[in-house]
What does this fold into?
Amino acid sequence: MTLPSFDALQVGDAIPALELPPVSRLTLALYCGASGDHNPIHVDTDFAHSAGLPDVIAHGMLSMGWLARLLTNWVPQTAIRDYSVRFAAMTQVHEKITCTGQVTEKFEVNGERRVRLSLTTANAEGQIKLSGEAVIALT
It folds into this structure.
């Protein structure tokens, strides 16, 4: 994988988006097993209803993983210097999520050229589910 060029990137540039298929019950069940997070709010419709929700919701950490995949589709994992997120809204089963990133800053630290990205996951209606940022080292 070739790193994007620091000189070619400008503040405001977008990185390639990651469009995901609609969140399925199978995806949530598989994530339960992979993560060890077996909270019934993610797989049990009756439990979700008892909590006042219309249906099960996706794990917040699953959405965080999708944003990490957005980054590693763009640069190798070794280029990531910082990554953080803030949960903004629940991701519902069947929602189609798109992950996006945009350059917000270019800077250097000890001679290493870096960019700061703002990151989001959002549904098809544009509702932000997760927001965050990452710092990436570039050539």
In short: Residues 71 and 139 are 16 Å apart (CA to CA). The first strand starts at residue 18 and ends at 19. Strands lie at 18-19, 80-87, 98-109, 112-122, 128-138. Helices lie at 25-35, 45-50, 60-74.
